[in-house]
Design brief:
Number of helices: 11
Largest sheet: 4 strands, mixed
Number of domains: 1
Low-confidence stretches: 280-284
Radius of gyration: 22 Å
Strand order of the largest sheet: 1-2-4-3
Order of helices and strands: HHEHEEEHHHHHHHH
Number of strands: 4
Distance between the termini: 9 Å
Length: about 300
């Protein structure tokens, strides 16, 4: 890899870090603004909003510690030991040395569709899961690219980041739901009082509109952060292997494979290196449709890798 290519990789990593930070900062500001607006619309609603935030926080903390086991169970992944596949173990160990990470546990999914994902709350409690199809259909440089990508997710603490984002998104959904219930069923007296206060009534109307849109806004921000983390993991993975072409070819092969991953669903699809729900591929085109994607378009990822 040339020095110019290395500079491009570092530039891309730096740019994606700042973009992710900007999205997270904006997300926090949005949640705080929503809380302030709802509290202003209903002077006695702060306690309810705090309950919603606490509920979202508790559920997200629980998922933070146990979501990896849930995902592995849903995916039908089985842990292997070194004697089961010494070549794969050696490949992962060598990449971990280059990445400066402790070796993760390795799981295998018995499915001929090529794909992989990483999970775990931190590098010392991490898991890399690959399908049998990935091991069968990729050559060694391509497999190294995929594993390096997943190790980058671990090293970048993407699981922790997305848990924080899930806390924020869950808080928004809970706040919105409780506010709507309170406004229609428990807020009759408050609405009558607001009729004589034009400013308060305007704030109430704005709050209702924002509450109805806020779950969608929260999901869009969450997806945008996920897309930026995929770009960063691609760049970091190329930095680990010093061979961007390996990951680029792997993405081509995985995306071209028409067999859907049987164990995948909408709840776990965002974890995989490429969306495993093949029926959804090719349906999202254009700027607006792209907002609802958890992964960047494969063509853009490959183009970025080959520009390094």
């Amino acid at each position: 890899m040339t020095e110019f290519a290395k500079v491009n990789i570092y530039n891309q990593i730096g740019a994606n870090k700042w973009k992710s930070f900007a999205f997270i900062f904006g997300f926090i500001i949005f949640v705080l603004f929503l809380g302030w607006l709802l509290g202003t619309a209903f002077n006695d609603a702060y306690s309810i909003l705090l309950i919603a935030a606490a509920f979202a926080l508790c559920s997200s903390v629980g998922s933070y510690y146990f979501s990896d086991k849930l995902v592995l169970g849903i995916s039908g992944a089985k842990e292997i030991v070194k004697s089961d596949n010494p070549d794969l173990y050696n490949l992962v160990d060598n990449l971990c040395i280059g990445a400066g990470l402790p070796p993760p546990k390795i799981y295998i999914i018995e499915d001929s569709a090529p794909n992989a994902f990483a999970t775990g709350r931190d590098p010392r409690h991490a898991v890399v899961a690959v399908t049998t199809g990935l091991l069968q259909k990729l050559d060694k440089p391509e497999l190294e690219g995929v594993i390096a990508h997943e190790l980058s997710h671990i090293g970048n603490y993407d699981i922790r980041l997305m848990t924080i984002v899930a806390v924020l998104a869950g808080t928004v959904v809970m706040m919105s739901d409780l506010f709507l219930r309170w406004s229609w069923w428990g807020g009759g007296r408050e609405r009558e009082e607001k009729e004589g206060n034009q400013l308060q009534l305007i704030i109430f109307i704005v709050a209702i509109i924002l509450v109805m849109l806020s779950p969608i806004i929260a999901q869009l921000i969450k997806m945008a952060i996920s897309r930026k983390r995929e770009f960063m993991a691609d760049a970091n993975g190329a930095l680990i292997t010093r061979y961007p072409e390996g990951l680029a070819r792997a993405l081509e092969k995985i995306s071209a494979d028409k067999e859907p991953l049987e164990v995948a669903n909408k709840a776990t699809a965002h974890l995989y290196i490429i969306n495993p729900l093949k029926e959804h591929e090719g349906t999202a085109r254009g700027w607006f449709a792209g907002l609802f994607m958890t992964h960047p378009p494969v063509e853009e990822r490959i183009k970025a890798l080959r520009a390094m």
